[in-house]
Fold each of these.
Amino acid sequence: MYDCMIKNVNLYLGKGELMTDADLAVKDGKIVRAERDLDPKDAEQVYYGEGKLALPGFMDTHMHIDKAFTMDNDETVSLIEACANSDRKMESYYGWTDDAIYQEIMEHSSKAAEWCIVHGTTLLRTNVLFHPNWKTLALKAMNDLKIKYADYITIQSCVGFPDEFRGELCAAAERGEIDVIGGYPHLCPDYRAVTDDCFELAQKYQLPVDLHCDESDVTNLDCFEYIIECTQKYGMEGKVTCGHVTGLNASGLEEDRAENLVQKAAEAKINVTSLTSCNMYLMNTERRGPSRVRQLTESGVNVSIASDNIRDTFRPFGNCDLLEEALLTAQVHKFGTVKCLRETMDMITYHPAVTALAEHYGLEAGCYADFSVVDAPTPEEAILRKASRDLVFRRGKLVSRKGKLIRDYIKEAK
Ligand SMILES: [Zn+2]
């Protein structure tokens, strides 16, 4: 007897492939059958898809949920102002008790996590913020959030190691509380030393690397190039991700140089995360534009799209909704054909699953039963109409219905 069955859905299998009029049978948190004409009498619970689309769980691999929803003014228009506002925001926590700060971070990030879940996201990777006022409280909050929403979503903490908290963070890594080594080497004068340090930490703790990289409009892509070099030097092919890389689209960048870097990235199996909506917003007064999504994809680089900042001082928009990010990215990159829209769908599903090193991912027998049924017949239509997420399943449990979280499985952290 199956735990549940979804009858009559179109399954998006990635790389443009759609299996129409299929059924999914789920048992013990996994998909056990994905084929046509299964008998509904063999399942305890049956859902009827009525020709709608089933998509594997979305994966939002570049977020900052600890500071989501902290936007409190409407004047952020440029990167410089966004940074200044962010500094001001962090200073406003001066004098707060640790407990009050922790509660505030939990409140913001719980809201963001819940919005992700109702939009069909089953894994998120978040960059954890450290600041003299916040200390390491955001990491503590992320650890508790993982427990709180364990039945709903996988949360990966991506952590840089600022000097002042290094001892504490190494101890946290020893305890397995850090999932990914993060950082912002392109912002550091000695980007080489910082990048080397990230790779040393990755080796020491056996973790993947995900760095913010060349988020600018300057043609100097030395940091991107050095990360590629280190990936090969440390034998970390497939485990390194670069976020932003808007420098690849800088005005004045020579085509040969761009092509050369894209080829090198493909050889080193670098994953690239394009944060198109955030970069488009911030380019208002300081051009930076999107990355070269099309060229990277065509060259075989694993490209994903992610939310980045959600309603904070960097970007007052965002709904933790990867169909929204996909729609905007597809427009910016002229990904308007059925083929291109399906490629865009891969960038919020199968591609970030590679980035996140997610196992048993997809809609085939043997995969985790992490998927949503959305109100559209095809992937392209799902993006174009930002289709409603009618049913969201995680490990075979229905966790959200029509945008409403089923709260039964939330575990309150101590
Ligand atoms: Zn970011």
Amino acid sequence: MTDRSLFNRLKSGLAKTRDLLSPSLSNQKTTELELSDELLEDFEERLLMADVGIELVQTLINQLKLDVAKAKQERLPTTVSALFKKLIVALLEPCNQAIILGDNKPFAILVVGVNGAGKTTTIGKLARRLKRNRKQVMLAAGDTFRAAAVEQLVTWGERNDVSVVAQATGADSAAVIFDALESAKARNIDVLIADTAGRLHTQNDLMTELQKVKRVMQKVDPAAPHETLLVIDASMGQNALKQAQEFHRSMQLTGLCITKLDGTAKGGVVLSIADQLGLPIRYIGVGEAIEDLQVFDAVQFADALLGLEPDT
Ligand SMILES: Nc1nc2c(ncn2[C@@H]2O[C@H](COP(=O)(O)OP(=O)(O)OP(=O)(O)O)[C@@H](O)[C@H]2O)c(=O)[nH]1
Ligand SMILES: [Mg+2]
């Protein structure tokens, strides 16, 4: 796929949030137009509806006012959208960090999150992406809780010609992942991705179980997991932020994957997550297809969110 067609997929994936946000800005030239109180109020409301979070909305609106006033004074040929883009790029840029596999072999990724967030699908898509980059990949069916979970991962494995280490439903998740990591090491695999059962951050016993998984992995490799990736569903809005905070507290996350941005107008939560957590956003999900799991790019995300052409 070309960069352009990937950007178009990103754009169509973010359509719901963009349709909510962009009408009040719609490329008003700062040199021509007053940024009226009415317009600002409308924009503020839209940001709130997109689940940006109230404090951040205030900060962004205040800064936008200052930036627009300055641009007008200096007669800069810019637009309100372009100025707003600058603001959100600055906010998102620290989270713009792709996973670097480095020399670890295997590089072990532990995938966690609440039920239905998109963990298993993301693992499938990620395996495909890594294979395309000529990496040897192995999957660990650490979701031993749900009957269909192992099957779902095995199907992804078959589809991508990737081996899956699994045991029967009800097996100890940590034991499955331990076996998989040992096996991946013995077979000189590049990347091991471990699935886990969905759980709520409020379920203490299940969160403790995840901590155990981590400890058990460290018996094979003290540096493992090299990535603890939380998958969150953007349509949860501010609840997704709350989940991320709680999972981070108990699991010391190293990265996020934000899925289902295509199904929601609450995509503004990505800004809130960047602001509150500052964790690397490794990937975003903007649809069901493989290409819809995209490496997060702050500038492209901002362009797609505001309906701007790249390089505006
Ligand atoms: N539209 C859309 N759907 C997605 C995206 N990512 C995942 N899904 C869908 O979300 C649903 C749940 O995905 P799973 O991967 O099974 O979620 P999970 O986190 O593994 O769920 P549990 O194992 O039950 O905790 C599936 O129907 C996926 O196709 C996305 O970016 N966009
Ligand atoms: Mg799953």
